[in-house]
Amino acid sequence: MENKTIIAVMLVCFLLFSQGVSARSGVGLYWEEDSLLVEEQTTKCIEYKVYNPWEDSVNVRLSPSEELEGVTKSVGDSTFIVGDTTHEDAIPVEVCFEVGDVYENDCLFLGTMCKQTCGDSIVKYEGKILASEVSTEESQAGTGSAAAIAVGAPMGISVQCSPSGRDYTFVYVVVIVVVLALVGLILYRKFRRKKEEMPMAQPDQNIKQ
Fold first, then answer.
1. Which tens digit of pLDDT belongs to each residue from 138-184?
2. CB 97 within 8 A of CB 62
3. How far apart are alpha carbons 182 and 179 in whole angstroms?
4. DSSP code string of the chain
5. CA distances, 7 to each of 17, 18, 20 (Å)
6. What is the dihedral of CA 173, 176, 180, 182, to 10 degrees?
7. C-alpha triplet 90, 93, 94: angle, nearest 5°
8. Who's near 73: CB < 8 A, 6+ residues apart?
9. How far apart are CA 137 and CA 160, in angstroms?
C-alpha cells in the first residue's frame, strides 16, 4: 500500500512538472557558422534562424554580447514567432558585422607614405549572438531590455591583415604640383618679358594736323 502511494505521488509530481515545462515560452536558435575571417573595412552578413518549440508565441530579438558590440552593424528587427514552431520552420534573421581599420600603419609624414607589415598577432573578436524574448511593448517600440536570455550562439571574428609596401602617392602628387607650378611660372615670365620688349607703336607724323 505504501509503495502504491509513493508511486501515485511521483506520478502526480511528474504530470505537474511536465505541464509546467510545456506551458512555458521560449526561443530556439539555429546557426551554421560560428566563426568568420574578414578583411579590414568590410561588412559580412550571416543568417541565423529562430524558432519556438513551446506553445506560447513570443517576440524574439537578436543582439550581440558586449564583446561583439563594436563590430556588429545590424541585427534586424524583433521577430514574432508563433508557438510550436520547429527548427525546420525556423525564421531567418540576418546579422551583419562591420570591421574598420584595426591594424596600425607605419607612416612617415602626417598619415602619408604608409606601409603595412602585419605582425605575428591577429585581431580577434569573440562573443555571442544572443536570442532574447522581449515583451510586445518593447517589440513595437524597438527599445528596451530583453526579458530573458533564451540562448546564445558563439561567434568569433578574425580580422585578416593584408601587408602592403610603402605608398608614395603623396610624393608623386607633390612632385607633379611643383613641376606644374614651375612650368607655369617660367611661361608667365617668358610671356611678360616678350610683352615688355615689344616696341610701342609711334604716332604717324605725316597725319595732317
1. 544 444 334 455 588 999 999 999 888 888 888 888 889 999 998 88
2. no
3. 5
4. -HHHHHHHHHHHHHHHHHHHHHH----EEE-S--EEEEETTEEEEEEEEEE--SSS-EEEEEEE-GGGGGGEEE----EEE-SS--GGGPEEEEEEEEE---SPPEEEETTEEEEB---S--EEEEEEEEEEEE-HHHHHHT-S--SEEEEEEEEEEEEEP--B----HHHHHHHHHHHHHHHHHHHHHHHHHHHHHSPPPPP-TTS--
5. 15, 16, 20
6. 110
7. 145
8. 43, 96, 97, 98
9. 41
- 196-208: pLDDT as tens digits: 666 665 555 555 5
Q: Which domains are seen in the chain, by residue range?
A: 24-160 (2.60.40.10)
What pLDDT digit, counting tens, does each position of 157-168 carry? 999 998 888 888
Q: Phi first, then psi: what are they for 157, rounded to 5°?
A: -120, 120
Q: Name residue, grid cell 558563439.
A: 154
Is the separation of the CB atoms in 155 and 126 below 8 Å?
Answer: yes
